[in-house]
Amino acid sequence: MAVEKMALAKAINESLRRALDTDPKVVVMGEDVGKLGGVFRVTDGLQKDFGESRVIDTPLAESGIVGTAIGLALRGYRPVVEIQFDGFVFPAYDQIVTQLAKMHARSLGKVKLPVVVRIPYGGGIGAVEHHSESPEALFAHVAGLKIVSPSNASDAYWMMQQAIQSDDPVIFFEPKRRYWDKGEVNTEAIPDPLHAARVVREGTDLTLVAYGPMVKLCQEVADAAAEEGRSLEVLDLRSVSPLDFDSIQASVEKTRRLVVVHEAPVFFGSGAEIAARITERCFYHLEAPVLRVGGYHAPYPPARLEESYLPDLDRVLDAVDRSLAY
């Protein structure tokens, strides 16, 4: 069994390497992905090993990067494009939502666009403006896109493989504050389905639902709650669109309480859709309203204030206390 402990960023690198080696139609594109290896070194060494025609340094033009990827996909390629930082994706938003997401429906199913758009996202790294956004809800609202976010190295490796193999466009949100977190990766495993949620900690008193960077925080919350005799279940969504509502429902029917945690602002965030749908599905099981913990409805603050903006242990534990008080 090929099991290796590696950082999440390294797992993505190894997954891209495997895809490039396996399929000659896979190309990697983006700003500084080649010679530099990416600002987070996620693509380090790939251009050296696969050449400049497979790992392509692009101009600083996000709309052009995604537009070129669409053209390549129309010609049978499987482009993996990197948006260097989350806040830089908006020049490409038009291409993503009006072309990439719509072509399959527009062509009545005749045209497929197997494009992966990699976006390092979220805060916690002390970055400057436009480098710490969490825009996943903006893309989840658009039909025709798959939205996923791994929380650990193993998922990062396998979900990237599955995203590249998908005939539908996938927005792959990478939690940049977790890039250096290490975990075991079995490169010969049979992975879970791409859009299936996973219970990462069993519990009986309340369900914590999260994805990407907040899964680790929710596990820490569950540890802290256990010291007070409370048993919290932690569910890693892994996918934001589609959402695995069946797994959330199964957990909530057991625990009867739900707190949803994400870095993005709570207002119109993905947690709102989860809260509404689970309230409909589990109305007679719930002992308390579904609560949400996330960022504030304000521009992301300067780095020195981000710890006050981001959800932390105390804010999630406060929501747990409020839910259990009903």
UniProtKB/TrEMBL annotation:
Pfam families: Transket_pyr (PF02779), Transketolase_C (PF02780). Its EC number is 1.2.4.4. InterPro entries: THDP-binding, Transketo_C/PFOR_II, Transketolase-like_Pyr-bd, Transketolase_C. The lineage of its organism: Bacteria, Bacillati, Actinomycetota, Actinomycetes, Kitasatosporales. This is 3-methyl-2-oxobutanoate dehydrogenase (2-methylpropanoyl-transferring). The keyword Oxidoreductase applies. Keywords: Oxidoreductase. The keyword Oxidoreductase applies. Its cofactor is thiamine diphosphate. Residues 6-181 form the Transketolase-like pyrimidine-binding domain.
